[in-house]
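pasting Pectinesterase inhibitor domain-containing protein for the record, 197 residues
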Amino acid sequence: MIIIARLMFLLALFLLLVTNTGQMVFAQDDNNVRDACSVTRFQSLCVQTLGHFSRTAGTSPSKWARAGVSVSIGEVKNVEAYLAQVKRQGQLKGRNSVALSDCVETFGYAIDELHKSLGVLRSLSKSKFSTQMGDLNTWISAALTDEVTCLDGFEGSKGTNVKLLQNRVQNASYITSNALALINKLATEGLGSINDP
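structre below
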């Protein structure tokens, strides 16, 4: 009976240790994403969209920048597909139809600019760091401008379809804005921050 009690005690102690260790790891991951997102304008959206990168990105500004741009690419592609579907269905008429065609075009440009940015982030180099940061800032700012230009085309428009479209586009612009902030953090942290694998 004493042996069973001791085994139960050891099992309970083991489970407590494993649970607390897991909670500490998750707490550290949560701190990593919150720290990375602290420089962004839309922090809660940043934490929500980048939280699953916490373990792999750790405290690395270059990995957080890559994660931010990757998430932005995914969101912009989703919105572009949505815009193309709305256009195919002919849900918008007149001025809004023209604005929608412009949006599809500008979102295509944004995807290209974000892909170029991700390519640079994958090959950062100390000798080209300053130029690379300038290119990244230019391309991601251009992608953000493309998204905002899309929104501008619907200014003053009303209706459920337009409002839904505006919300989707605006969310993509917030995610791209967060990616730009993470790029700027990387640029500020400087050359030493790209030593990570």
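The first helix runs from residue 2 to 37.
The chain has one domain: 56-194.
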